[in-house]
Structures are given as C-alpha cells and as structure tokens.
Amino acid sequence: MNVALRVVVAAGLIAGAVALSAQTRPAEERLAALEASQKEILKQLAELKLMIAQLRQPMPPPAAAAAPSAAGAPRPAGAVPPGLAIPTTPIPIDGAASRGSATAKVTLVEFSDFQCPFCGRYSRDTFEQIVRDYVDTGKVRYVFKNFPIESLHPRAFRSAQAGECAKRQGKFWDLHTRLFANQSALGEPDFIAHARLIGLDTNAFASCLAGDSTTARIRQDMTDGRPLSITGTPAFFFGTAQGNSVRVQRRLTGAKSYAEFKANIDVLLAQPAPQ
C-alpha cells in the first residue's frame, strides 16, 4: 500500500472511531477517546513523515543492481548500491551493549531508536532469528548503539536511557526485547513496570533513570554514528572487530528481511581470515 493510500485509510479509520465514540459514550469517555485519537494521529503522522523521508532518498537507476563492478564482475548479492558507500571510519564499540563471542569472525553493529517503528519491526520479525542462527552459534558478535531520532520520536532518548540503566544490571537485552515489543508503552511508569517484569532492582533502576549518568554514553553513540552517513534507523554495519572498534565491510539500512542479513553475513564468513 503506498503512503498516500495509507494516510487516507488511517485517517478514515480514526475519524470513524471518533464518530462512533461520540455517539455511544458519556462525555468524559468521549473526551478520553478524543485525546487517545489525537495521540494516535500524531504517532501515525510521525511514522508517515519518516516513511516519506526515506522514500525520497535518491535511488540508483533500475539497471544499477545488475551493473558490473569496476573489475568487470557483476555486483554480488547484498552489495551496497551506489551512493551508500562503505565508511572508512572504524566504529567504536567499547562499552556498547553486545552479545555473542568476542572472537566471532563477523561483528554486526546496529544503530537504533527504541521508538522507531522500523526498528521495532526489525526487532520483532528478524532479530531473534539472526541471534539463533549466527550469534548463539558463535559466528557473529552483535553490538547495539543508540541513535535516537529526537525530532521524530520524543520518547526515544529517554528509552535509550532506560536501556543503559538496564545494562548496568546486566539486563539490557531483556529490556531491549520488552521496549521494542511495547513501543506504545514508553512512559516513565512503563519503564518501571518493564524493569519489574524482567527482574531488575527497580529502586536502583529508578535512581539511574532519575540521574543524568547515561546521557554522555548515548550522545557518544550518536556522535560515533555521524561519520557513517546514517540516513535512517535501524542502520546496520557488518565488519571485522579490531580491538575496541569495527572495520566496516558491508551495510544495510531499514527493516530488511532475514535473507538480506544472511546474504551479507555469509559473504563475510566465507572470506579468508585476515592475516
């Protein structure tokens, strides 16, 4: 469904829901329903704005995907299209949340935003399969970097702080799963409820959230992402760990399919180990 049609359908559904509420509910309930509808409209508009921005990004000509490389060979599956160059700047990963073997041949770095709908879709649909097939088997180390898009997602930075506070208790990935599974519940009481459900010390967690000790970590992640020409979240970089950084060899942007991740990872796994 194209963006324009999605806007029309969404607007029609919301208008219908509001009209029905006005006819069947008492005044206080109608007011609450209107407020909820307004919040939903703002949420959908923000998501659509991000979708439109991504759709407006320059695309390569249709023939580009089959165009030969500089050496004359066809571009391999999963190769980066023109205009989305592989960054030469290594990505620092020291202190970032990670899972998998530190000696894995491939390191996959994700820059993400807990309120981003595309990040949520990727987390729910694809992430766990990558973990099962590659991370848990020792082939890939997975690293998470914060990249909240504050202009679109007002709860993204605060959610990143919640993730950093959970990381201090060794529960980052547990909260990661809950936040992406419950993107409509990213308020202050929600964070405490999530923390309780995953077994965190809620007093220590609340104290961490009340302070400002995680801000520098998140801002540093965002700074680390700027030289990488990130055009949207989630953004993924595949490469080889070199100490506390990653030398990037391939990249993807968006909630891509598992098959696309598999193609990129398998190419790197098949390469000879660096001498």
Summary keywords:
275 residues; alpha+beta; disordered N terminus; Glutaredoxin; 6-stranded mixed beta sheet
- What is the averaged pLDDT score? 82
Give the fraction of residues assigned to helices.
40-55%
CATH topology of the largest domain: Glutaredoxin
First-residue to last-residue Cα separation: 49 Å
Low-confidence stretches: 1-11, 13-22, 53-80
- How would you classify the helix and strand content by structural class? alpha+beta
**Strand order in space, largest sheet:** 1-6-5-3-4-2
- Count of DSSP helices? 9
CATH architecture of the largest domain: 3-Layer(aba) Sandwich
Q: Report the order of strands and helices.
A: HHEEEHEHHHHHEEH
What percent of residues are in strands?
A: 5-15%
Which of globular, elongated, flat, extended, rod-shaped describes the shape? globular
Radius of gyration using CA atoms only: 21 Å
CATH superfamily of the largest domain: Glutaredoxin
User: How many DSSP E strands?
Assistant: 6
CATH class of the largest domain: Alpha Beta
Number of domains: 2
Task: Report the biggest beta sheet as strand number plus sense, adding barrel if it closes.
Answer: 6 strands, mixed
Q: Your description of this structure?
A:
With 275 residues, the protein is α+β, with helices and mostly antiparallel strands. The protein has 2 domains: 3-53; 86-270, Glutaredoxin, CATH 3.40.30. Helices cover 49% and strands 13% of the residues. It is built from 9 helices and 6 strands. A 6-stranded mixed sheet has the order 1-6-5-3-4-2, with helices on both faces. α3 (117-135) links the parallel β3 and β4. α4 packs antiparallel against α5. The longest helix is centred in the first third of the chain and has 29 residues, at 27-55.
